[in-house]
Specification:
Length: 271
């Protein structure tokens, strides 16, 4: 039986039920109306308006430069395209780390100005006060542990995280803290599959993996990676379901040639 028929509209409660029923959660990023509409109509459970927009939409090297205003714009576009999916919006770097009141005002702006359903932020015990403040205000929070791209300069690389005993223990501690603080789900990025399985069984809220093995309660990919728009980006965890880069390139070249050779528009395509 397909998941789409079971849940007419996805809520944070639906995700909890899906974990309890052993139904996997599907999640993709989107940044605009057109793709959000296609994904929603295809039956995706969760759409993440990711701060990866900094990379794939704006061309930045890291996720750090994107602003709260820019995230709100992308989220507004996405929300207009969906009927069923749960829309989660990343709080960008600098909009929540320094203090809980800043975090709360950032989260409130996202919810008020976009119509999205939840926010996501990165980190463990260092952001717990922010998580608590946002949850207390009635805003659902998705956590994010493991490789946290907003801390990339601290890590120094995009390598697998929590592969030492010490870091694995810290991740377990953080995942419990996030659950106890009221997070409704947690993204686990680039951690050993065995550890991801262990922590998924440890908590009652869903885990969403990216490069964290098949035992998470769900999976997320960046749409540009999954659709093969970024031809050069091929990490181990990625499965490309299309090679859009090549397909688009050949279509554009064909269009250019048709224009240059006066084959487009034809008589049929003229008034």
């Amino acid at each position: 039986m397909s998941q789409h028929k079971e849940f007419k509209k996805i809520t944070t409660h639906s995700l909890r039920q899906m974990k309890e029923q052993g139904l996997k959660i599907s999640m993709l990023t989107a940044y605009d109306f057109s793709f959000a509409k296609i994904f929603d109509q295809s039956g995706i459970d969760v759409i993440l308006v990711g701060d990866s927009a900094a990379n794939v939409m704006a061309g930045h090297e890291t996720t750090l430069p994107i602003t709260l205003d820019q995230m709100i714009y992308h989220a507004q576009c996405v929300v207009r395209g969906i009927d069923r999916a749960l829309v989660v919006v990343d709080l960008p770097f600098g909009s929540y780390q320094s203090n809980p009141s800043l975090a709360l005002s950032s989260a409130i702006r996202v919810m008020k100005e976009t119509g999205a359903h939840a926010i996501k932020l990165e980190g463990g015990e260092e952001v717990i006060d922010s998580v608590t403040a946002i949850v207390k205000a009635g805003i659902p929070v998705m956590g994010h542990l493991g490789l946290t791209p907003q801390s990339i300069y601290q890590f120094g690389s995009y390598a697998v995280r929590a592969n030492t005993k010490e870091e694995a223990l810290q991740l377990k501690k953080n995942i419990r803290l996030l659950e106890n603080s009221g997070c409704f789900a947690i993204v686990l990025e680039k951690i050993p599959a065995k550890l991801a399985k262990e922590v998924t069984e440890l908590i009652n809220i869903p885990t969403i993996g990216i490069g964290a093995g098949k035992d998470c309660d769900g999976q997320v990919l960046v749409m540009h990676d999954m659709l093969g728009i970024n031809a050069e980006f091929k990490p181990r965890f990625l499965r490309q379901y299309l090679q859009l880069n090549g397909m688009i390139t050949s279509a554009v070249k064909e269009y250019i040639n048709d224009v240059k050779e006066s084959r487009f528009p034809s008589e049929k395509e003229s008034y």
